[in-house]
Amino acid sequence: MSTKEEERERENLGPFGSCPLPIFDHPQIVLGHGSGGKLSAELIEKVFVSRFRNPTLDKMDDQAVLEIGGTRLAFTTDSFVVTPIFFPGGDIGALAVNGTVNDLAVGGAKPLYLAAAFILEEGLPAADLARVVDSMAIAAQDAGVQLVTGDTKVVNRGKGDKVFITTTGIGHVNRATQLSADRAQPGDKILLSGSIGDHGITILSQRDGLEFESALESDCAALHGLVAAMLDEAEAAGNLAGVRVMRDPTRGGVATVLNEIAQRSRAGMVLRENAIPVRDTVRGACEMLGLDPLYVANEGKLVAVVAKEIADRVLAAMRRHRLGTDSCIIGEVIEQPAGMVLMKTSIGGTRVVDVLFGEQLPRIC
Amino acid sequence: MKYLDEYRSGDIAAKLVERIRRVQTRPWVIMEVCGGQTHSIVKHGIDHLLPKGVELVHGPGCPVCVTPLEMIDKAHAIARQPDVIFCSFGDMLRVPGSDGDLFSIKSQGGDVRVVYSPLDCLKIAKANPDKQVVFFAIGFETTAPANAMLAWQARGGGMTNVSLLVSHVLVPPAIEAILSSPENRVQGFLGPGHVCAVVGYTEYEPLAARFHVPIVITGFEPLDILEGVLMVIEQLEQGRAEVENQYSRVLDRGGNRPAQDLMGKVFEVSDRKWRGVGTIPESGFRLRDEFRGFDAEHRFRVTAIATMEPAVCISGQILQGIKKPHDCPAFGTECTPQRPLGATMVSAEGACAAYYAYGRHLKDADLVTIGEDGR
């Protein structure tokens, strides 16, 4: 024991002086558990993964890829609880279809079938429900998926928030892709399909007490077409395996997704701040509210880690697709420091882009 | 983007760093007073651009960090009461009190809300006439006018269901306390730009003269900070100790007089406790007697809550610039933003949280190597 520690022990102050007691375990679920950051990861690991452990679950990808009778199927589920349920650029219905379609698509699958479960709050206007479901039908048609089964429950007024939707999807992995978050390798390029933060800031701009005028719309969109264009290009280049990882950076944003990939791949990453597209409206809102767009949700963007040999070709293919016209290379995978994401700032400094711990909190001033 | 990009230019930053390098002949220790400046320094990696002999130490200007434990316990006692809507700036929600944080209170059924403007409380109060709306009025001179406006409008509107839990602190007494400490290492200051936009900088002139330290009132963008550092070092090298204004695009010597008038009508100077530092005489604001009816401490009878903080605490030493976050044995291991042991780890403006979020738990050598490779 060092002298310093002995000294503190003598003074009976404990190792950290008067620092207030830490909150080691929240006895209740707090909102931060749903943030997509460290609190969420801890909840998933401690409560869920530890009880269901199996090789497929342990991969912790956005979808499970299962081989059944020689056919590779992608399987995923997601719940949608957005407030407000209608917002510029989309609504909870479109989100529920596209979100699950995207989780299948970034696993390299052609999305095929969806199931949907609705939890409706007593008092929800029937017309609002019809509008949401109309929107789901259009989104499903656009994405080429069929909604083949479902369920409906109604809860007492005040026990829900208008409507919660859970969608489950199945897709066919019809090529020999090997997409997984543990496959990033030093030298690979990090590709992003367009501007970040549009969805999260659109939702924030609609919230009570924070209405601000903006022409911003959610980027809510189905990404299977963009993914197919990327994989087609990689196949044409004879290097399908060169597309290592794809993710749609929803809750927790690009920073959270890249950290997951860096940790799972035991590799580092270095981003260039100047290369990351952020719309002026989003930047302005983030500057004012003290938020970082790297942690803000997207609903129609993807990040991909691609071998450097085919990165330019895949990028060109992305740019030809209507959902990827602003695609760019935002950084690359490096060896060290493994498991960490760094960023070269616009003024030439370096900083770490860490995992969000809970909810991103607006700063005071 | 206008008003941002021109203050984040890599080319101009490199030129300013070169000028600092040319002017500086020996090591200097400079404190940035504001939490917002600390955040900017680590977010943009500014400290890594500076020559080795220029050491930036982080000041007491994080309003969340310096709010005393006792006041947080009072806030929690009020927020737990039924029929209370407790409103706060966002980053106050994760600060641990003696028993939990505001997030925990929310998860237990407390009505805790994040507001962006104190005046939002008036709207909430009007929409909820059967509830008591309490605003946690913390911060330095920067937030004081808007917080004063809440009390002013609440009284003007005859509102009976709005009150303020006031824990306001002032910058000049903190600078005086730092400079008076026998352990002081600080030789020059980047003064608080937004605070001075409200109150001006005449109060800083006697401090610069009495302690013979240069104080350069500085903004928050990377180029502001680099220019502020350059101006402080020029003064130090020339043996000058003046108050200069780097942030002249925003403020002048006299500050914002209407804001000062309003603050003067609502608040009066009082002694205040600072977390980790202790009581500093005449270092904060309380509501004037005319506004006592809007004082949440009285309305909810929490004045008697007294939480002792032992004298030895590294977060206090960090706030005074005596120690750096990685001098703490718990930094980045037992103490992280997810499980903060101290207030400086809680707010994004807190020195420990800023260090942590932007990778200062890495060895400096790692970052420098990466910086050179990636250039």
Our count of helices of chain A gives 10
User: Which chains have the largest interface?
Assistant: A-B, 56 and 88 residues
Q: Please, what is the average pLDDT of chain A? A: 88
Quick check: average pLDDT of chain B?
Answer: 87
Ends distance of chain A:
42 Å
Strand order of the largest sheet of chain B: 4-3-5-6-11-10
Global Rg of chain A: 22 Å
Main sheet characteristics of chain A: 7 strands, mixed
Order of H and E elements of chain B: HEHEHHEHEHEHEHEHHEHEHEEHHHH
Q: How many individual helices of chain B?
A: 16
Largest sheet of chain B: 6 strands, mixed
Short précis:
The complex is a heterodimer of chains A (365) and B (375). Chain A has 365 residues and is α+β, with helices and mostly antiparallel strands. Helix content of chain A is 32%, strand content 23%.
Structure description:
The complex is a heterodimer of chains A (365) and B (375). Chain A is globular, with a radius of gyration of 22 Å. With 365 residues, chain A is α+β, with helices and mostly antiparallel strands. Chain A starts with a helix and ends in a 13-residue tail after the last strand. Chain A is 32% helix and 23% strand. Chain A has a seven-stranded mixed sheet. In chain A, strands 1-2-7-5-6 form a five-stranded mixed sheet, with helices on one face. Chain B is an alpha/beta fold. Chain B is 39% helix and 19% strand. Chain B has helices at residues 10-23, 35-43, 63-66, 69-79, 102-107, 120-127, 144-156, 171-180, 193-199, 204-211, 222-238, 257-266, 296-299, 314-319, 351-357, 364-374, and strands at residues 28-34, 54-61, 84-88, 111-114, 132-139, 162-169, 188-192, 215-218, 243-245, 267-274, 278-287. In chain B, the strands form two sheets. In chain B, strands 4-3-5-6-11-10 form a six-stranded mixed sheet, sandwiched between helices. In chain B, helix 2 runs parallel beside helix 15. The radius of gyration of chain B is 21 Å and the shape is globular. Chain B starts with 9 loop residues before the first helix and ends with a helix. In chain B, 56% of the residues are buried. The chains are: A alpha+beta (365), B alpha/beta (375). At the A-B interface, helix 1, helix 9 and strand 14 of A face helix 1, helix 2, helix 5, helix 6 and helix 14 of B.
